Amino acid sequence: MLEIELTQLVKKVQDLQAESQTIELKAANHGCPTKLYDTLSAFSNQDNGGIIIFGIDEAHSYAVVDVYDVQDLMKHVTEQCNQMHPKVRAVFTTCTIDGNHVVSAEIPAQDVTDRPCFYEGRGRYKGSYVRVGDADEPMTEYEIYSYEAFRRKYEDEIRIVERAEADDLDRDSLLRYELALKSERPHFAQLSESRILELTSVLRNGKPTLAGIMLFATYPQAFFPQLSIIATRIPGTQIGEIGPNEERFIDNARIEGSLDEQLRGAIAFVRKNIRTTTIISPENGERIDTAEYPIEAVRELILNALIHRDYSIHTQGMPIQLQIFDDRMTIINPGGLYGRLTIDQLGTIQPDTRNPVIANALEVLRVTENRYSGIPTVRRLASETGMAAPLFENTRGEFRATLYSPLTRTTPPSAVNHETFNRLNYQTDSHRPSTRRKNRPEERNAAILQFCATPRTRREIADFIGLDSTAYTMRTYVQPLVVSGQLVLGLPGKPQSSKQTYRTAQ
Fold first, then answer.
1. Contact partners, residue 195, CB within 8 Å, separation at least 6
2. Is the CB of residue 457 less than 8 Å from the CB of residue 240?
3. Cβ burial, residue 303 (10 Å; 0-12/13-18/19+)
4. Which of 22, 75, 123, 362 is the most buried (most CB within 10 A)?
5. Distance separating alpha carbons of residues 49 and 467, to the nearest angstrom
């Protein structure tokens, strides 16, 4: 970072009056902060790293204060960086603002294979942190496991299911798989069935693996009750709304069976619960029915969830969720993106595969192409049918894919973010008159109040603002409006309810 860039960043922070996902502020006018470990860990464990700025005092309206000693500060920060594992290599920049010295420490992201970065004095499980909004929060056991699983190449999908026997696998399904393998791969032709199943990890030492159970068992849920799909058709645009007869769900189902059966069951549920438009061709008078969502796109997203979900013991109690609202469809997949893949790279590069045995078996059975074309296909179909661009989100421990109905006029959260909060919060201010900058908090509040004219959940408000952390959203944006009476609770008697909604006061 150049000195002028640091100066501009300080002014931006002062204007925004807040820390962020990548900015941490410390006054450091009376000495070096002694416990930077949580922030060093959190910044190192996110893809964009982060910047610690010393010389800004949050407690005094984000005023610039002179750090106590530039050289000594950098020395003590470096000492704390060296107590991290792996060691953190901070890059320092200094500048002078109104005669006061400001120091920044840029904390680079650690490679995924080196994460989690943690404070050696507390150990991996107590010293690893993740950045959530402007807060550093301890990593969960699962988040730490996810990094280790990638680094050590854990093969959760082929762990042996001790309670199962080879006889629990469906013979007809196995025969179709065996014949498909032999037709495509001639070197399998002379092998016995048991040898083929061992080589393809359907069996290990004569016992079924998790992949074998999910692919070929007569009833996989006898061994893994939650490895299924919970499908719901929800009235309105958010969970908690009720229909005209006070029903919470228009339809709901637990979709079980093998992966192929779950795929077919989920598609059938979607067909049953989405709208169909009908037109009569003026040329030949034939009836043309068009589904609300392209079924091919729906199939790709459900298949993606079944193949790429996390099958570790940490998530085997979490079903995939398929939620159909009036204006959108969301598929929630246990386990975030795997390995080095980021949201920006989704559908543009060949990713690391979390479950290659399952992916390869479904390719052999011609359920999937296994050519990483699913996400580009979904985006293409959305564009061709006039839908808003699909939204993909990678949050703590889950992956969300959302399709927006072309039959509603709801603006997707991603578009709202760019039109409101990104415009109000994060663009440079050199072209705006000073009076506009001073009123910007009021503009932000007005945008939230306008958005909440329809009752909104915590997650919807966070998506609108463009933040991953609902806790930060509530603390920074929503609670002040609730306290002032401008927002009211949908469930006033249960303020902490997971189904709580917020609407603008009448």
1. none
2. yes
3. buried
4. 362
5. 17
